[in-house]
Specification:
The complex is a heterodimer.
Chain A (H helix, E strand, L loop, with lengths): L9 H5 L2 H6 L4 H13 L1 H19 L7 H54 L10 H24 L5 H20 L1 H8 L1
Chain B lengths: L6 H28 L2 H17 L9 H26 L2 H11 L4 H5 L4 H11 L4 H10 L4 H8 L3 H28 L1
Classes of the chains: A mainly alpha, B mainly alpha.
Chain lengths: 189, 183
């Protein structure tokens, strides 16, 4: 396209002002641009304007970050860091608890049983049975065993005559003789 | 013993180094974007707090591009919030403020023939991403690659946008200067 133009048109020149300044134009285009530039003051003004814009942009003041902004940044990040640490610790403890929860519960139950047994499980010597009580219990066991035997043999309710003959009378005699031995002597006499 | 330090302190000192290295650039970009010093300070704070939050995820070699991208995003968020808040206030108050917003300050009035002041006004009128590219490339002298990565644009597109932006500035400035000479 450009080879067909003897005199470059306005758009062609306008689109190449910045590229000419940057030295980005191909050699043939640059030669043509310079030719027009030498002949036309309008394009010299455009190049000067573009050059001025670029130079001024590079010297525009760069706003500086004040130190109180830096202080605020550090304060906020330190606060965030503390919060993060607390979150990390809580998370760590939660994980540990999930891992050891069941063994810990088992240990606690076992410990409760052991301590409970140690505190309340043993009998004091004062609670031991006396010889009389042991004897009475023995008698009662024999009586119960007899009743069970009778029940098994008859397969029905215990009759009064059997109880009278085998339980009540012997027990009455036994108790009577145990309580008053001198009466036995007098009856024998 | 002198070479020993806990990782948390190493991380903090590295962060503080980054703040020192990049704070003026972040503040500069935010100032040009927001056109307000106080808001730019808020943006700068927010950007570096986000950097701290994301410190484990950011590649150190790409911090510069990351900072540009986040600064731009925070600026956009803040401007949106401002617009929303402005919408909630009474229209009468807004109209009063809007009429003042376009008027130059006494200082600006005094130096209205200054080329730099005209240029800054023209720069403020550029559309995005042209304005950002001019600020980042021409004022802050970032690399094209960094700008491309930050704005998520291919390298050639960045160059094309910059070229168009400079041409737009030239046209706007030409009009302003012409008006001034005829007035």
């Amino acid at each position: 396209m450009k080879q067909q133009l003897d005199i470059p048109d306005r758009d062609w020149m306008d689109s190449r002002v910045e590229a000419y300044l940057d030295g980005d134009l191909p050699a043939d285009e640059e030669a043509m641009f310079k030719e027009v530039l030498a002949a036309d003051p309008y394009w010299r003004y455009q190049v000067d304007l573009a050059d001025g814009i670029q130079a001024t942009l590079r010297t525009l003041p760069q706003p500086e970050c004040p130190s109180h902004v830096v202080d605020a940044i550090y304060a906020r990040t330190i606060k965030a860091e503390r919060k993060q640490r607390v979150r990390d610790y809580v998370g760590w403890w939660r994980e540990v608890w999930l891992d050891v929860r069941q063994p810990a519960l088992a240990m606690a139950v076992l410990l409760t049983i052991v301590v409970g047994t140690a505190l309340f499980g043993t009998r004091s010597p004062t609670q031991q049975e006396s010889a009389e009580v042991r004897q009475a219990l023995e008698d009662a066991r024999w009586a119960m065993a007899f009743l069970a035997e009778v029940g098994r043999n008859t397969g029905s309710a215990i009759r009064d005559d059997i109880l009278q003959e085998h339980v009540i009378s012997p027990m009455h005699d036994a108790v009577g003789s145990a309580l008053s031995p001198h009466n036995e002597d007098s009856t024998q006499d | 013993m002198s070479g020993f330090s806990f990782p948390i302190f190493r991380r903090r000192s590295a962060f503080e180094l980054m703040v020192e290295q990049h704070r003026h650039r972040v503040m500069g970009y935010a100032s040009y974007y927001m056109k307000d010093q106080v808001l730019a300070e808020d943006v700068t704070q927010e950007v570096f707090v986000r950097l701290w939050d994301q410190r484990d995820k950011i590649d150190e070699a790409r911090v510069s591009a990351w900072l540009i991208r986040v600064t731009r995003n925070v600026c956009i968020d803040m401007l949106r919030r401002q617009q929303l808040q402005r919408g909630l206030f009474s229209s009468e108050y807004d109209e009063m403020n809007d009429s003042d917003a376009g008027a130059p300050s006494p200082e600006e009035d005094a130096e209205s023939n200054d080329f730099q002041v005209h240029l800054k006004r023209c720069l403020d009128r550029l559309p995005e991403p042209h304005r950002s590219i001019v600020i980042l490339r021409e004022i802050q002298e970032h690399k094209y690659e960094e700008i491309g990565e930050a704005l998520d644009l291919p390298l050639n597109t960045v160059k094309v946008y910059l070229h168009r932006a400079r041409k737009m500035l030239r046209k706007q400035l030409e009009e302003v200067l012409e008006r001034e000479t005829t007035a």
